Amino acid sequence: MVRRLSGWFAGGAVLAAMPWLVGAAFPGQQRYILHILVFTGLFGALALSYDLVVGHVGSLSLAHPAFFGIGAYAAALLATQAGWPFLAGLGAASVCAGLAALLIGVPAFRLAEHSFAIGTLGFASVTHIVATNWVEFTHGPLCVTGIPRPEVAVGALRLKLTTVQHYYWLALVTIGLTALLYHGLTTFRLGRAFNAVRDNESLASAAGIDPLRYRMLAFVIGAALAGGIGALYAHYITVLCPEELTVALTVNLLVILFIGGVGSLRGVVVGAVLFTALPEILRVAPTWRLVIYGALLLAIVIKWPEGLDAALRRAARRPQGSA
Amino acid sequence: MALFEIRGLVKRFLGVTAVDGVDLTVERGELVSLIGPNGSGKTTLFNCVTGYLPVDDGRILFRGGDVTGAPPHRIARLGVGRTFQLVSVFPRLTVLENLLVFLQQHQEESFLGRLLRTARIRRLESQALDRARSLLELVKLAHHADALAGQLSYGQRKLLAFAAALMPAPELILLDEPTAAVNPTMINQMKEHIVGLHRQGKTVLLVEHNMDVVMDISQRVVVLDHGQKIAEGPPEAIRRDPRVIEAYFGR
C-alpha cells in the first residue's frame, strides 16, 4: 500500500515537473513537445469520457465529437460574443453537451446496436453541417477567432493561463480528474451495473437494473465531460473551426480505445499517449510517416486483438505462471 | 390471497396464439411445475409474466398487485426472480460480481451514494459479499469466486445463474429448464437445490422437460398444449391423464 502510494506520488511529481525536464532535455523544442503533451492530455481525457459509453455500457456511439464540438463552440461563442468568464463558459459547455446528449439519447437508445451507431453518426454529421453553414452564429468556415486564454480568479488569487507550460498543467489536471471520475464510475456498484448492461441486457433486467437508465447515465456523463474538454480545447487553440468536429476525430478516438483496450483505464491512457505522440515522433521520416503509422496499427491489431492492456496484463502474469 | 396469479393470459405472434387464455394460481410456499410439448408456450408465458414480452390480454398479479405491462427490472425488484433457458451470466464480470450485481439493485439506488461510496453503501456491500460467499459455497463454486464467469463450464454457469437469482432472496422464483443439457450428476444436484428452496418456504414455478425431476419434486403440475392449459393436478394424476398422454404421444 505504502509502496503503491509512493509510486503514484513519484509518477505525479515527474509529470508535474515535465516542463523543466523537457526544457533540460530538448532545449530548442520545449514548446513543441509540451504542445504535443497538452494534446495528449486533452485527447486522453476525451478518450476516457468516450470509453464510459463504448467500453462500459457497450453502446457504440459515434456522436462523441459532436458533444466535444458543442462544448467547444459554446465556450468559444460565450467568451468572444458574450464576454463570459472562463469558468462560467466551461460549466455552460458541459451543460450544453450534456443536454444535447439527453435530447439525442431519448430517440437514439430506441435503436438497437448498429442502428444506434448509425443514428448517432447522423447526429454528428448534422452538428458538423450546422457548424459549417450557420455562418451568422458560428462564423462557419471563417472560424471563431480570438478566443481568450483562460483566466481564473479564486478569491484574491488570479491565475492567467497564457503559456504552453500553464496549459500543460491544466491538461494534466484535466486528465487526472477525468481518470478519477472514470475510476469512480466504472468500479464498485456503479461499474458493476454498467458492465452488466454491456454484457447481457436481459439478464441485467432480471437483476433489477434498468438498462436504459444506465445507458443514458453513461451517455450523458460522457457527453458532459466531452463538452468540458471541448471548452478547454477551444481556449487553448484560440481559433475554432468546423473541421475540428469531423468524423476523423471519431476514427482517432476509436483507434485509441480499441488499440489501448476498451473498458480499461490503463489501456485507454496508453492508447492515447501512443496515438497522439506517435504521429508526431514519426515526423522524423516525413515520407514514410503514414505508411509506418498504418503498418504499426495493423501489426498491433493482429498481434494483440484485444488491445494493449490485455497484452500488458498477460505480460505481468507470465513470470508468476512460470515460477 | 394467492402469491402469484395469472388470469386469462393471451399472447399472439403475428396471428399465432402462443398463449391462449391461461389461468394459473400459485400459493405461497408451493412448488408448481409447468410442462408441455415443445412449442406449447411455456417459455412465452414465463417471458410475459416477467415483463420481457408485452401481453395481448389478461392480468398478472403478484402479492395482489397488478404487474401486467411492468418492465422486467421493476418486476424483479418486487421480488420475482427468474433464470433463463439458455444459460445466462455476465461473462466479463467475475463469478462473485455476478452474484453481487443481483443484490445491489434491491438495496439502494442512489447515484451519488454509489459514486461517493458512503458508509451505508459500504455496509450494504459487505452484507452482499457475505451472502454471495455463502451462496457460492452452496453451489460449490467458492474456489472460482474471482474467475471471469465466461471461463466457467456450461454446467457451472448454470449453477451460477441459479445462485445469482437467489441473491435478493426473491419470494417467487421462476426456473426455466434448470436441468436442460447438463450431466446426470448435476441434474441431481440441481434437483436437491430446488427441493432445498422449497423446504425453506420459497415459492417455485418450474418449467421442465425432465419428467423424472417434475414427477419427483412437484406438488402440482400444470400442462400446456398449443398455448392452452389442458390439465392441472398432483403428479400422479397428471401421469395418468389421457389428455396429457395424447398431447405428448399423439392419439
How does this structure look, described?
The complex is a heterodimer of chains A (323) and B (251). Chain A has 323 residues and is mostly helical. Helices cover 75% and strands 2% of the residues of chain A. Chain A has 15 helices and two strands. A two-stranded antiparallel sheet of chain A has the order 1-2. In chain A, strand 1 (151-154) and strand 2 form a beta hairpin. The longest helix of chain A has 27 residues, at 211-237. Chain A starts with a helix and ends with a helix. The mean pLDDT of chain A is 87. Chain B has 251 residues and is α/β, with parallel strands linked by helices. Chain B has helices at 42-49, 72-78, 95-107, 111-116, 119-138, 154-166, 184-199, 211-217, 235-240, 242-249; strands at residues 4-13, 16-26, 31-35, 57-62, 65-66, 80-82, 172-176, 203-207, 220-225, 228-233. Chain B has a six-stranded mixed sheet with strand order 6-7-8-3-9-10, sandwiched between helices. In chain B, strands 2-1-4-5 form a four-stranded antiparallel sheet, with helices on one face. The radius of gyration of chain B is 19 Å and the shape is globular. Chains A and B meet through helix 9 and helix 10 of A and helix 2, helix 3, helix 4 and helix 6 of B.
Q: Give the helices and strands of chain B as they follow along the chain.
A: EEEHEEHEHHHHEHEHEEHH
Q: Report helical residue fraction of chain A.
A: over 70%
The biggest beta sheet of chain A, please? 2 strands, antiparallel
Distance between the termini of chain B: 39 Å
Outline of chain A: globular
Mean pLDDT of chain A: 87
User: Helix amount of chain B, in percent?
Assistant: 40-55%
The low-confidence parts of chain B are none
Structural class of chain A: mainly alpha
Order of helices and strands of chain A: HHHHHHHEEHHHHHHHH
What is the number of strand segments of chain A? 2
Which structural class is indicated by helix and strand composition of chain B?
alpha/beta
Low-pLDDT ranges of chain A = none
Q: Please count the helical segments of chain A.
A: 15
Give the count of helical stretches of chain B.
Answer: 10
